[in-house]
Amino acid sequence: MSPLKAAALSVVLCSSTFAMAADVSLAPGAIFKDCADCPEMVVIPPGRFTMGFDGGVSDERYEGPVREVTIDYAFALGRFEVTQAQYAAFIEATGHVSGTGCAIWDGETWNHTQGADWRDPGYGREPAPDEPVVCVTWADVKAYSVWFAKKTGQPYRLASEAEWEYAARAGRTGTYAWGDDPNGGCDLANYYDKAGYSPKRTFIPVECDDGFAEVSPVGSLAPNPFGLYDMIGNVWEWVEDCYFVPIPAEPTDGSAVQASGTCDRRAVKGGSWSSDISWQRPTFRGRDPEDRISHIFGVRLARDLKAE
What we know:
Helices cover 13% and strands 17% of the residues. The chain is built from 4 helices and 14 strands.
């Protein structure tokens, strides 16, 4: 769907009534907001897709087994990654103590830097309000989603890994979200390319140029066919799932994989501006402890549209 067509479907819900989007029958691709300062959400249609890949960069990072997933419900996903300004509003409203000691790439390696957090993520400058929030742990973004649900009275949450992969593909097949050419994604993904090349990296950049050496403001590049921006690249996105290898045979209905007890690691998806191309595939599965904090980790919200 083109941005113009998506804009034509845009619906802004009344902040005083917070009507359920399902109640007003939003069409797939419609854009809505639940309040004036709420993030823009895009309606994702029901569908079926092939999830996973029978392989991976290592046995530990196996991306299978391949399985058919049926998402028989519409849901909403953030049009953009959660921004610095949106996360700042959460901190101001709640006093939440966000993670610190963020892992920052210093040009040679990753160092957990004392005092580095979402306010100072190691850019050598103040982060812009419209850049994606980073240096947030899974626990931070989970708290953000819970607060946002309470603030709006609507069922905001983290996306499941299946929902995320389905939305990132947006009906396309191939190794990458745009097809099989690793160099073909610079129009919609801020990933490790000529613009961000560093001779101190151990991996090779793609041959195209997305125009950004580091993080970019959300929505700087083109959207995918579902109208979502930055699903691949820019920053990694935490999802709800507990990480298991191999992926359990169930569920296959789009819901998150959960642990019966303590979850050792959570899934994170999408790659970043500094990630190797092999990690930019929709099937690739990052797996990190809930307290992992890095200046390439962020989030995007999901929202149920089903009536309870």
